[in-house]
Each structure stands twice: as structure tokens, then as C-alpha cells.
Design a protein that fits this description.
The complex is a heterodimer of chains A (about 600) and B (about 250). Chain A is an alpha+beta fold and about 600 residues long. Helix content of chain A is about 55%, strand content about 10%. Chain A has 19 helices and 14 strands. Chain A is globular. Chain A starts with 7 loop residues before the first helix and ends with a helix. By secondary structure, chain B is an alpha/beta fold. Helices cover about 25% and strands about 25% of the residues of chain B. In chain B, the strands form two sheets. Chain B has a nine-stranded mixed beta sheet with strand order 9-8-7-10-6-1-4-5-11, sandwiched between helices. A two-stranded antiparallel sheet of chain B has the order 2-3. Classes of the chains: A alpha+beta (about 600), B alpha/beta (about 250). The complex binds flavin-adenine dinucleotide. The site of flavin-adenine dinucleotide (FAD) has 19 residues of chain A, from strand 3, strand 5 and helix 12.
């Protein structure tokens, strides 16, 4: 059976050495947290992930969910695990303590989500969506809704969902037809069908609180006509006790490629015209409020990608050390040469480094985005808050799309490292690939992310935010161009950044010239190009931080070697990893630029 | 009821342990530590006894200031306060010295029960509880798989060779925990937040006024022999029996 391992050392490196998470305690919101308490949190989360969630991962995959006449049963063990998870306070990691949250910084929450998601991706849907939904209610729902729902959701007593998708309204959320008709007392009657709703029905909690996008009478077409409603499965009395069922029915669950232990449900609201919904904010604000939830959810989907890559790396690495096959290349012609573990084959090492770079590079990207969110919410200076808010907005679609694709690619390469055994269920690595594929699709497909990046985030204010963000990377480059160890690689990063800027300018001209289709055609490669530059930047930053640490470690005790101190190997590897990325992956930025500058419209003009 | 309970940290069982080049000990630079699993059982039992009988659970440990983190984890599980005896490195103690330190803490704290893990999974000595009871001249029940309190007695089920033994010890007593005693809880996030404000007293070992010399002298550490290659028997049962007799001397 595949064993789930977590690289706590690298997590701590990103949390405390690359980003100064401990310094966040200076902000009133985080004053109760110390470095020592973070360490205990990481240690306990690791136990929970490894001992409680991971053992259910393969079981859940095999058993799947069972639809039974409107009810949905999750696989054996999930209910107990959920109870443990909720009891430990792991649902509302970053929410206000006043509302039953734990008040952790987002960057620490991200590390914990990575551990849990890597341990059991299916499991994490219910707590993840519950927190996302409770967070919207807490921030935007008004006092009445807040008081009824938030605490009970954050404690795990009730679960939550987000309901956007309908058969005719997938990427085009604005085509939703579910209706909400005012009853006259401030509440609405909801009628319609939603599909693909994660955790839409399950047997983990006594109530499920749906957040539903629906259209009010005479509302304008498109997203502007949508409003957001709290729609409980069981109605809640004003004293918080459970009342009667609310005319919400689960009509089926999907059979899927992966995440078999997550229920993906079709829901029917108001079959008997007796489904009550409670509006969040005002009519017509639905999409805006839903975005509050979706932006956070998009980062979490990116984390799904990085956690898959890291889990895949751990499996592939252990396997490569154990599997004996073939001889060293230089002995290929002598049949008696000793057989070696495949980790000694250079091509296998190349594959392992690729998996590792997706895992550790995307980890750095996700934590950095979360760190920006922490600064955007807590820095005392409003201009600083604004700056990081914009960086976060720019990074969000990249985290989601680049992260999910990195996860898929890493899982694919990890299967390859295993050879035939990778294709066999028992080894656990093919499940990672099946489970992570969905991350490219939901929460807005990766194409929708790329369009968001290009058309909204980069184009905004005539490229103002884009320029500011490029300035941040340029600052790092200028500061380190003369670096004795990594100067050359920094120069290559500068070239890669140049490729990104050139591609951005070219696409800007194309759009001005009216060829919108061309921009849409290459939006995804553009996002990948952008992601490569962010990765190169963060990995080189890691290499330089690690190099400093290594130098001070050796200054303390020059006799330290890879064998005598684990950090010597750790810090040295950071340099190798950055170089690997710079020389093996980052050159792709040049190719993508050529593609973007080619003006070739074959895909548009071809007869398909 | 007042309980003293130990929280020793041990080298991460997943870490690769390497010896110093002069073989005087293991390399500790950059080594990761985890709570000793048997101590976790002891802590869990202390917390459960506390839940039914009230009182106080005090977590004790010995080592450098970093060991605070191990105590803090126990506080996050629900223990009330901690005592850390400093001035010694993890690898500068033997079981006897540890027992003498705990005996002194016992005299200062006067608990009803002193709970320990039956052994630490790094040194595997399995001596501290026994020595401690002896120094204190109080009853001991080692390898506990069940503990019940009846009045002034602890009824302890012990895991012994070939089965279980149930004994009663008068309190105060020393009890050491076996793995089957319970399933230790995980610290909850609210517990971790609360633990930050709980006190951990640091006491320098020199201020305890005890004899601190070691009774065990370490001559050298050796790596375990790496396992030799296996042998395939093709000659059938007779050859196998023959080799087991003549070469392996197993029968
Ligand atoms: C397992 C699972 C769980 C899900 N969970 C939830 C959930 O909890 N809540 C929820 O509301 N939904 C959920 N979904 C739905 C998911 O968000 C949608 O499937 C997704 O948004 C894509 O919509 P679609 O499937 O209709 O694809 P379509 O929108 O039909 O897209 C098909 C293709 O066309 C492209 N495309 C579509 N429109 C455009 C455009 N305007 N410009 C460029 N390209 C375009 C897409 O990128 C995609 O490649 C889930 C789906 C699955 C499979």
C-alpha cells in the first residue's frame, strides 16, 4: 500500500525561511500565534493527515459514494474521520475566532490544506466547501444569517456547498435559470435544478447549507441578474434548532474518473414549490458575492495541484530507491554487471527532478499567494494592502490553472517512474492522476482562468497591476544579477521575464487591432508562460535564501557535510532544483513567445 | 488527584540516524524530534483520569529549552502546566539520572500518581519507572494496559509475558504505560491556542541539588550490521534443515 509522506522540512522552509510567517504575529489578528505554536499545528496536522485521512484514501477510491433514494452514503470510515477533523477545529482554519474559526494566517492554512488534500483529496471537499460557504455568510450575510449559520458550519455540525452549475450554465454561469421569487416577508421561493454540486448530499452532517445562485423576477439577463441565496437542506428555526425539510432533493450522483469518495450531486430545488431561500446582500449582487468565495476556492484548487505533485514525488522517490532494474549505463554491454536501483539511471533522476520542481515550485507559489492575502488584509498601511491585494488578484488564476496542470503533469511523470507498476492501482500513483484531473476543470476551467488573467487582471488599468508585479520581479533580478552562485540563472530569469513582457505587448496590440479570437486562442499558453516566470522567480529566491542559510551553517561549523547535517543536503538541493527549472523548463518561455508572435491562425481557420 | 506525567522527545523514527565520526554518539545536528509514543499513552491516560477524578496534570521533561515544544504539545492535548529541567542534552543522560531528577520533582510536587511511558523508543532502556519507584519507595505497576482508580488504590492491568496480570497498588504510585493502554488524542487547534498561555517552569538541573553523575559509561556506538544477502535453497527440506543446523545454528 502506498504510504503518504509529507515534506515538513520544505513546508517550514517556505513558511519561515522564504516568507516571514512568524512576523505576521505583529498584526493584532495573529498575535496569539507563535513560531512554536505553528510547529505544533504542523505536527498535529501531519498526524491527522497521515493517520486518519490517508488510510481512507484508497478505500474511498474503491468504494465510492452510494446513491440511495435521495440519500448519499460516503465510504466506510469517512463519517468518523469527519467527526475527528471537526472536533480538532480543522474546518475554519483562517476564520475569526469570534465565529468559531481558528484565526490562522492564510499561509499556514494553505500548508494545512496541502497536507490534508494530499492525504485524501475526496475527503477535503466537504470541510473545504463548508468553510468557503460559512465565510461568505459571515462576511456578507448580515447579522441574522450569520448568527444562525456560521458557528454551526465552522464547528462541522452543518456542512455547506456552492451551487452555480446547471446543465446549460457551466462556464457561462450567467445562463443560470434557477428562479427566486419573493414571498413577501423578505424570503424567496427557489425553483430549479443544479448539477455537479460537490458535497450536495452526504451522511456526514445533520444539515447542509447550500449557497445558490438564482434569478429574481424581471432581473436582467446574464450574471447581472443573479442573486445569492442561503438554502438549507433542513430549515432552521429562529432559535437555531432544526425544523422541517426544505424541499431540496438529491436526484442522483455522478460516476467519475476520480475523486470517487466525493459526492457530485444533481439537486432539485422546490419540486413542491416549498423551498425557501434567504438572500445574501441585495438582488443582483449574487455574482459579486459568489466571487468572494470563488477567489479563495481557486487558490485551494491550485493547492490541490501542488499537493498532488508533492504526494506523487514522495511515491516516485521511494519507488525509485527500491526498484532494481538494469545496470549502470556504462556497463550496458556486460550482462554480469550489478543490477541497480532505478534512481541510478539519469533519465529516472530527470523525471524525479521534474516532479519535484512542480511540487516544490507550486508549493512556493501557493504559499506566496496566501501570504499576499494575509498582507492584503492585515498590513496597517492601506497602500501596502492595496498593492498585495492586486498581486493576489493577478496570481489567483495562475495558481489555479498552472497549479492544477503541474499536478496532473507530475502525477503522469510519477506513473512513468513506476513503469508498469504505476499503472496498477495498488501503487496509489494512478489515483493521484485521476483525482487531480478535475482541478483543471472546476472553479472555472483553466481556459476561463487564462481569459480572466489576460482580459481582466493584466489588461486592467492599462496594464497597471501587471507592471507593478513585473517591477517586483525586476527588483529581485536587479538585486541578484551579480550573485556569485546564481547570477547566470538570474540573467536567464530576466530573459524569461522579457519573453513574458513581449508576449503581453503583442497580445495587447492584437486586441487593439480587433483580433479578439487570436487572444482567446493563445490565452492558455500565455498563462503557462506567466506561470513559468513566477516559478523561476520563486525557485531562484529559494535558492538564494537557501544559499545564505547554507553559508551561515558552514560558517558556524565548517566541517559539516551532506552526511553530518540534513540541512546541508536540503539547502544544496534548493540550488539544484532552481537550476533544473531554469535550464530544463524555463526555456519553454521562448517557445511560447514564438508561438504567440507567430500570428498563425490555423486553429481558427481550420475546418474542424 | 494530582498526576505528574512525562513527555520525552525522541529522534524522529523516520529519520536516518548517523554516528559521529568518533563513534561517541549519534549526530544530533538538524535532527528532528517527535514525542515518545509511550509518553503519549501516559499523557492520554493522565488526561482521562483527570476528566473523571479532577485535579491537575503536570507534564515533566528533561533536556534543552527546545523540549518546551514537546511539553507544549501535551499542554495542547489538555494538560495544565509543565516543568522542564534544563542543563542536560538529550544524549547526556542515563536512566538512573533521569529517575533521580524525577524523584526530586516528585518530592517537590507530591502527586498521587507518576505516569511514564514504559520506555523511550530511542534508547529503549525501560528502566526509569522502575528506578523511580525504588528511589521513592512507593509502589509500581509497569506496562499498564488498563488503569482504574478505586479509593486510594490504582487497579492496573499489566501486559506480562503470556498474558495479563491485574494488580492493585496503593497510591501514590508509579505507573508506566504500554501501547495498548489507550489511543492518544490529537491536540485540537483551540487546544494549541490555549496551550500558549499555560506555564512551563524551567528549572536548571544544578539547582535541584541532586547527584548528577552518570552511572552508565558509553564506550562506543556502532552501526547495526547491514543485512547480508539471502540464500536460496534448491535442494529441498533436507538441505534446509542441514544448513539451519550447521551454518545458521538455528536448530
Ligand atoms: C467533479 C465535479 C465537481 C463539481 N463541483 C461543482 C460545485 O460544487 N458547484 C458548482 O457549481 N459546479 C461544480 N462543478 C461544475 C464545474 O464548475 C463545471 O463543470 C465547469 O465550470 C465547466 O462547465 P461545463 O462542464 O459546463 O463545461 P463548458 O462550460 O461547457 O466548457 C467546455 C469547454 O469549453 C470551454 N469554454 C466554455 N466557455 C468558454 C468561453 N466563454 N470562452 C472560452 N472557452 C470556453 C471550457 O474551457 C471547456 O474547455 C463540478 C464539476 C465536476 C465535474
Amino acid at each position: 500500500m502506498a504510504e503518504y509522506k509529507i515534506d515538513l522540512r520544505d513546508m517550514r522552509f517556505v513558511l519561515f525561511e522564504q516568507n516571514d510567517t512568524a512576523a505576521l504575529s505583529a498584526y493584532p489578528r495573529f498575535q496569539d500565534w507563535t513560531r512554536q505554536s505553528y510547529d505544533i499545528v504542523l505536527q498535529e496536522a501531519e498526524k491527522l493527515a497521515v493517520n486518519v485521512l490517508a488510510p481512507l484514501n484508497a478505500v474511498g477510491d474503491r468504494q465510492g459514494v452510494v446513491f440511495d433514494n435521495g440519500n448519499v452514503h460516503l465510504p466506510t470510515g469517512f463519517k468518523d474521520a469527519y467527526a475527528k477533523y471537526a472536533e480538532g477545529g480543522w474546518i475554519a482554519l483562517t476564520a475569526d475566532p469570534e465565529w468559531g474559526g481558528m484565526g490562522l494566517p492564510g499561509i499556514v492554512g494553505t500548508a494545512l490544506m496541502e497536507m490534508f488534500t494530499g492525504a485524501n483529496t475526496s475527503f477535503i471537499f466537504t470541510p473545504g466547501l463548508t468553510f468557503a460557504a460559512s465565510h461568505v455568510i459571515q462576511k456578507l450575510g448580515g447579522e441574522h444569517l450569520r448568527n444562525i449559520y456560521v458557528q454551526k458550519m465552522n464547528s462541522g455540525q452543518w456542512a455547506g456547498t456552492m451551487c452555480l452549475t446547471e446543465p446549460q450554465a457551466g462556464s457561462a454561469v450567467g445562463d443560470a435559470r434557477t428562479t427566486a421569487t419573493p414571498v413577501g416577508d423578505g424570503t424567496y421561493k427557489i425553483v430549479g435544478n443544479k448539477i455537479f454540486i460537490s458535497s450536495g448530499m452526504h451522511d456526514l452532517t445533520e444539515n447542509i447549507i447550500h449557497l445558490v445562485l438564482a434569478r429574481t423576477p424581471n432581473a436582467p439577463p446574464g450574471t447581472a441578474g443573479l442573486s445569492l441565496f442561503v438554502v438549507p437542506y433542513v430549515r432552521v428555526n429562529s432559535d437555531g434548532t432544526l425544523g422541517v425539510e426544505n424541499d431540496v432533493r438529491c436526484t442522483g450522483v455522478e460516476e467519475k474518473m476520480g475523486i470517487h469518495a466525493s459526492s457530485t450531486c444533481s439537486l432539485s430545488f422546490g419540486d413542491n414549490n416549498n423551498c425557501l431561500g434567504y438572500i445574501i446582500g441585495n438582488e443582483g449582487e449574487g455574482m459579486r458575492h459568489m466571487f468572494q468565495m470563488m477567489n479563495e476556492a481557486r487558490l485551494i484548487v491550485g493547492v490541490q495541484g501542488s499537493s498532488a505533485a508533492n504526494a506523487a514525488f514522495q511515491l516516485a522517490k521511494s519507488y525509485a530507491h527500491e526498484r532494481i532494474q538494469g545496470t549502470a549505463a556504462k556497463f550496458a554491454k556486460s550482462p554480469d554487471a550489478p543490477r541497480v536501483p532505478i534512481i541510478e539511471h539519469a533519465n529516472v533522476r530527470q523525471m524525479l527532478m521534474e516532479i519535484r520542481v512542480w511540487g516544490e515550485g507550486c508549493r512556493a507559489m501557493m504559499y506566496r499567494a496566501a501570504f499576499y492575502a494575509d498582507l492584503a488584509e492585515n498590513a496597517p498601511d492601506p497602500t501596502v494592502r492595496e498593492k498585495y491585494h492586486r498581486f493576489l488578484e493577478l496570481l489567483t488564476p495562475i495558481c489555479k490553472a498552472y497549479g492544477s496542470e503541474a499536478g496532473l503533469r507530475a502525477a503522469d511523470v510519477a506513473i512513468q517512474v513506476h513503469g508498469g507498476y504505476g499503472y496498477i492501482r495498488e501503487y496509489g500513483v494512478e489515483q493521484i492522476m485521476r483525482d487531480v484531473k478535475i482541478a483543471s476543470i472546476y472553479e472555472g476551467t483553466n481556459s476561463i482562468q487564462a481569459l480572466d488573467l489576460l482580459a481582466r487582471k493584466v489588461a486592467r488599468g492599462n496594464g497597471r497591476d501587471f507592471q507593478a508585479f513585473m517591477g517586483e520581479i525586476s527588483g529581485f533580478i536587479t538585486q541578484n544579477l551579480a550573485h556569485t552562485k546564481f547570477g547566470k540563472e538570474i540573467e536567464l530569469l530576466q530573459k524569461a521575464q522579457g519573453n513574458l513582457i513581449a508576449a503581453t505587448i503583442h497580445l495587447g496590440q492584437k486586441s487593439f487591432g480587433g483580433d479578439v479570437d487570436y487572444t482567446v486562442m493563445v490565452c492558455k499558453p500565455y498563462l503557462t508562460l506567466f506561470g513559468h516566470v513566477v516559478m523561476g522567480w520563486l525557485l531562484l529566491e529559494q535558492a538564494i535564501v537557501a544559499n545564505q542559510k547554507l553559508e551561515s551553517l558552514l560558517a558556524e561549523n565548517p566541517s559539516h557535510t551532506v552526511d553530518s547535517h540534513p540541512d546541508v543536503a536540503f539547502y544544496t538541493n534548493k540550488g539544484y532544483l532552481a537550476r533544473f527549472f531554469v535550464y530544463s523548463i524555463m526555456p519553454a518561455t521562448r517557445g511560447i513567445l514564438s508561438m504567440i508572435q507567430s500570428d498563425d491562425r490555423s486553429a481558427i481557420d481550420a475546418i474542424l | 488527584m494530582k498526576i505528574l506525567v512525562t513527555a520525552k522527545r525522541v529522534t524522529d523514527p523516520n529519520a536516518k540516524i548517523k554516528l559521529k565520526s568518533d563513534k561517541s554518539g549519534i549526530q544530533t545536528d538538524g535532527l528532528e524530534y517527535k514525542p515518545n509514543p509511550f509518553c503519549e499513552n501516559a499523557i492520554e491516560e493522565a488526561l482521562r483520569l483527570n476528566e473523571t477524578h479532577g485535579g491537575e496534570v503536570v507534564v515533566v521533561s528533561i533536556g534543552p529549552s527546545d523540549v518546551q515544544a514537546t511539553i507544549r504539545t501535551a499542554l495542547a492535548m489538555g494538560a495544565h502546566r509543565g516543568i522542564l529541567v534544563t542543563g542536560l542534552d538529550d544524549h547526556q543522560m542515563d536512566s538512573d539520572l533521569v529517575a533521580r531528577v524525577f524523584a526530586e520533582l516528585y518530592k517537590r510536587e507530591r502527586p498521587d500518581l507518576f505516569l511514564l511511558g514504559k520506555q523511550a523508543i530511542d534508547g529503549d532502556s525501560n528502566q526509569v519507572g522502575q528506578l523511580l519507584a525504588e528511589y521513592l519507595e512507593i509502589g509500581q505497576a509497569c506496562f499498564a494496559s488498563k488503569v482504574e482508580i478505586h479509593g486510594s488504590e490504582a487497579i492496573v492491568t499489566r501486559e506480562v509475558d503470556g498474558g495479563l496480570e491485574k494488580i492493585a497498588v496503593g497510591m501514590p504510585a508509579v505507573i508506566t504505560a504500554d501501547l495498548r493502554l489507550n489511543e492518544p488524542r490529537y491536540a485540537s487547534l483551540p487546544g494549541i491556542v490555549k496551550a500558549r498561555k499555560k506555564s512551563i517552569d524551567e528549572i536548571d538541573i544544578r539547582s535541584l541539588g541532586i547527584d548528577t553523575h552518570l552511572k552508565v559509561e558509553t564506550v562506543a556506538y556502532e552501526e547495526p550490521k547491514t543485512r547480508g544477502g539471502g540464500v536460496t535453497f534448491v535442494g529441498g527440506v533436507d538441505e534446509l534443515v542441514g544448513k539451519l543446523k550447521s551454518e545458521a545454528k538455528a536448530i
